[in-house]
Structures are given as C-alpha cells and as structure tokens.
Amino acid sequence: MVDQLEVRRGGRRVLRGLSFAVPTGEVTGLLGPSGCGKTTLMRALVGVQQGVSGRVEVLGLPAGTPALRNRLGYVTQAPSVYGDLTVAENLRFFARLLRAPADDVAAVLEQVDLADHSNDLVNRLSGGQRSRVSLAAALLGQPRLLVLDEPTVGLDPVLRRDLWALFHRLAATGTTLLVSSHVMDEATRCDRLLLLREGELVADNSPQALLKRTGAGDVEAAFLALIDSRSDLTNAEVHS
Q1: How far is residue 133's CA from residue 151's CA, in Å, rounded to a whole number?
Q2: Residue 230 clears pLDDT 80, i.e. is over it
Q3: Residue 235's pLDDT band (boundaries 50, 70, 90)?
Q4: Cα–Cα distance measured from residue 5 to residue 196, given in angstroms and rounded to the nearest whole number
Q5: Angle, vertex CA 179, rays to CA 154 and CA 174, nearest 5
Q6: Is residue 90 helix, strand or coil?
Q7: What is the mean pLDDT of residues 210-239?
Q8: What is the SS3 assignment for 30?
C-alpha cells in the first residue's frame, strides 16, 4: 500500500504524491516511458530509495523492514549475480543467504529454463540468460511479493511469452507480482495496470476497464488519450 509517496532527488520531485495498492495474487504492470519514475518507485517499495516521504507498506510492514527480506524478491534491470561463478553456484550462494531449501535451486532453474546452463559461468551467458539467472535468484524461497524491473528486456518473443506464463502461474499460487515495462503491448498480459508519466500516476485500472474508459483500441492509445485529456484540462484551467 502506497499513500502520498513522493521522492525528491537533487531538489527535483521524481515521484509526485502517488497513492495505490497492489492486489494480492495478481500480476500488476507498471508501465510508462523511460525516465517516468518506474525504477524509483520500485526502489521505494523494496526500501532502498533515498529521499522518500509518504507512507509505503509492503505485506503490512514499512518498506525496508528486515523481516521482509525473505518474503520479497527484487530483480533490477542490471543482472545482480556474480559473473565469475556458475549459474548453480550463484543460486546455491543466494539460497544459503535466504535460508531457502536446497532443492529450490533445481526448481527455479527449471522455472526460468536454465537447467541446461547450470554449470556455465554467468559471464559467458547472453544478456537475456543473465537476466534470467537474476530472476531465478529472486524466486528462491518462494517470496510472497516479486518486484521485477523490466525482466523481459532483451528476451526473444518465445522467452517473453514463457516468462509471462510463469508470472501468472506464480500469481495463481498466491504470489503478488509488480512487473515494470516500457513496452505497452505487455499491458494486456497484466491483471491490473499502473500507468506512470513524469512521476505521476495517470491510471490505476485493469486493461479492460482502461480501454472501456477511453474508448481506445489498445493500451498505448488509451495512455495517449489520458495524457491528452489531462493536457486539455490543464490548458482549460490556465485560461479560465
């Protein structure tokens, strides 16, 4: 739950009074153009962002509370694993840190389709494969909340499809997912959407309700319609 979240960086308001809740057991998409504040918002949710004001609670606790470490999985845009270790060595290391069951390693390797690369050094993998190693590490211990910052960037269409199928399987077991993307065509894969622009929340709704509200044929057109309507309102206020 987020209430009146603001983030200031260098005297500039990066996030501007955001308030929303992420439904449990659903895939919520955080969409918007590059630089709109998606990563800053995710960092605030996991408790590592500076300059935060407002209320941010995760699983009923203040963001950043130590008790959340084993209940929350976070995947950054940059792979967050060790290149000089193999895939399996990375996962065994993180499993020990999280006190996750040893058999989680094999399970998450299967989930992200990297079982055949378990003995490969991470720095010899492709960029998409390294991203999937980071996702596998986040899945260790079966976290209740997954915060994924553009996890499908650089992946081919088949892997993107398979990862979204995985996200929905996880949601069906009760895991809550917040997945960011700047690719609007991924919006239809989400149960709910948060549309962000210039640090402001433009919409918080299901894809279907958003299309109905705007009369648009797709989410990108709906996003543009919402931007245009806000601009018209602002112009009307200026000239009133």
Answers
A1: 11
A2: no
A3: very low
A4: 13
A5: 130
A6: helix
A7: 77
A8: strand
